[in-house]
Amino acid sequence: MNGMKTIFSADHLLHQSPGELIFGEFLPAFEKPERAELVLGRVKEVGLGEIRPPESFPVSAITRVHAPGLVALLQSAQAEWEGLGRTGAAYPYTWMSRGMREDRVPAGLDGRLAYYSFDCGTPITKTSWQAIKSSVDVALSGVALLNSGERGAFSLCRPPGHHAGADHYGGYCFLNNAAIAAQKLLDDGAKRVAILDVDYHHGNGTQQIFYRRDDVLLVSLHGHPDQEYPYLLGWEDEIGAGAGEGFNLNFPLRWGTAWPEWSAALEAGLKRITAYGADAVVVSLGVDTYKDDPISHFLLEHEHFTQMGARIASLRKPVLFVMEGGYAVAEIGINAVNVLTGFEGA
Amino acid sequence: MNGMKTIFSADHLLHQSPGELIFGEFLPAFEKPERAELVLGRVKEVGLGEIRPPESFPVSAITRVHAPGLVALLQSAQAEWEGLGRTGAAYPYTWMSRGMREDRVPAGLDGRLAYYSFDCGTPITKTSWQAIKSSVDVALSGVALLNSGERGAFSLCRPPGHHAGADHYGGYCFLNNAAIAAQKLLDDGAKRVAILDVDYHHGNGTQQIFYRRDDVLLVSLHGHPDQEYPYLLGWEDEIGAGAGEGFNLNFPLRWGTAWPEWSAALEAGLKRITAYGADAVVVSLGVDTYKDDPISHFLLEHEHFTQMGARIASLRKPVLFVMEGGYAVAEIGINAVNVLTGFEGA
Ligand SMILES: [Zn+2]
Ligand SMILES: [Zn+2]
């Protein structure tokens, strides 16, 4: 097969959330293993290209963008949790706010869960770490494909990553696969990398990681913070700071946004990426922009995902697609793979 | 009766939490109406003194220390929640963390819940606002008693308040009754007010409100942030800032702290209050330092609460006792009232 290669690890099955507190109810998790399996099934169904397992990369590739204390917590939390006589997955129950200490990490488990997280929908189970680490490896193995000369590659990551910042996790995301991949591209020789985040939700973690840097440009199209998770980041006036000023571009869009408005924002984003002169592009590929997604409010249809892929191909850059969100489970495979075939066919 | 007067409102019954996510489980709330009823029963049993309903004070007394946006949210959240087609109490599901916007409040309900809160154990029910407002009135009516010349008064507040900051709620607390009372004392003519927080948990909200001010001294004895909620504030190196430098005194104490160590910290705190020359003292009276409290780890016994009251009396200042935490429900009345009779008998 000569098509786009997909990197996939069955280790993702090792992370399964017992549930989340959302809208006042403790509900079954929206972010579930079937998601990745359905995308994989569709990759096979359309014969996209070879499917490969990831190589294993050292944790040092992770700590290039994440705080060591966060990485350590993800590895030890569940054992510490059991050590306190508790059962089930490790959940935080309190969080940071204005006036609290950012400069001092409490020693205890509940304190570190509070310090390093920002929501109660991202529990750490006994086997989550292996899934989280393999998801990073899936992203990094995609980088290796680009380095070997591939025009495009698909890192079928799960758990997703774009909500995870340098020193906090949440929004179903523990480590920021796309950000780790972008950093690896730089460390392997790229001078400038663009991240295009097309997930329905703002890539708050990616923004936080690169906000003061000019070697990574973030372009994010997403539900407006006045209406949509994560609410506390993603406005258009967040343009980067310090050396990073001008290298963060947010397109907050209102509920009900359909393809004409969405694709106009995409064109503006692509134009910015072209002007930036990126050596490579990482796409945070969420397909929760789909009209029937259960937790989202945009109106994209199947064919728009194909067009999205074609437009991304027009950049004429090496592109790594990193799987993020998308919760209309039955349709997630079709929409994600439509982006890839649209890219390949352009 | 000539003893200490108690201010109490049955409106507290209008706030009843449907439950909280804590230690990974959605559990019945620890902060429940029986708490106040048991304290009231004990006040009657020992014949402490007259029991009075509160007067009603204008909301402007609240916005002297709290953000208007927070106060508005507490009033409207449940109606907005129902307007979104949801049932039950209003819970946030995501929160602030490093790198998120502190300068911009999102317009939507979930965004404002995220912005203005820091935990998932403090739901807003349909009738919570009346309980919250009456709890503030109970505190302010206690201030009126001190202004009229009483040596001491007991504001039997519920819900409690000391975890609520200027612009956030959490920890079973919505508005900071003790802080609002301290501000009222200043507005009514006091030059300096000391707040002595003897609750098991750090008075993070009170600290945040007055951290940059020298007209309110906070002395807090509490579980160490390395071990105890709220984890992200309460270290000994938090001494105040700007004009407030030197006017915040934390005594973080380890699990297992018993009376000898606890009372030594109290003596140091009382010495500081005396040196400060406060015109009046507000005591954030939590009795979760009791040895059998279900969520705490100090070892105080019944008679230590009596001694605590006597030591507070040694300040020879007007003292307003404001009820905060304490969850060993059967014992909470005995311990709270022991502090008051200890004060009266000294
Ligand atoms: Zn998403
Ligand atoms: Zn307490």
Q: Topology, please?
A:
2 copies of one chain form a homodimer.
Chain A: E1 5-7, E2 20-22, E3 25-27, H1 34-46, E4 51-52, H2 68-83, H3 109-115, H4 128-147, E5 152-155, H5 177-187, E6 193-197, H6 204-210, E7 216-223, E8 248-253, H7 259-276, E9 280-285, H8 302-313, E10 319-323, H9 329-345
Parallel strand pairs in A: 1-4, 1-5, 5-10, 6-7, 6-9, 7-8, 9-10
Antiparallel strand pairs in A: 2-3
Bound molecules: zinc ion (2 copies).
Architecture overview:
The structure is a homodimer of 346-residue chains. Chain A is an alpha/beta fold and 346 residues long. Chain A has one domain: Arginase, Chain A (3-Layer(aba) Sandwich), CATH 3.40.800. Helix content of chain A is 35%, strand content 13%. Chain A contains 9 helices and 10 strands. The first copy, chain A, has helices at 34-46, 68-83, 109-115, 128-147, 177-187, 204-210, 259-276, 302-313, 329-345, and strands at residues 5-7, 20-22, 25-27, 51-52, 152-155, 193-197, 216-223, 248-253, 280-285, 319-323. Chain A has an 8-stranded parallel β-sheet with strand order 4-1-5-10-9-6-7-8, sandwiched between helices. A two-stranded antiparallel ribbon of chain A has the order 2-3. In chain A, helix 1 (34-46) packs across helix 9 and helix 8 (302-313) packs parallel to helix 9. Chain A starts with a strand and ends with a helix. The interface between A and B is large, with 59 and 59 residues. The complex binds zinc ion (2 copies).
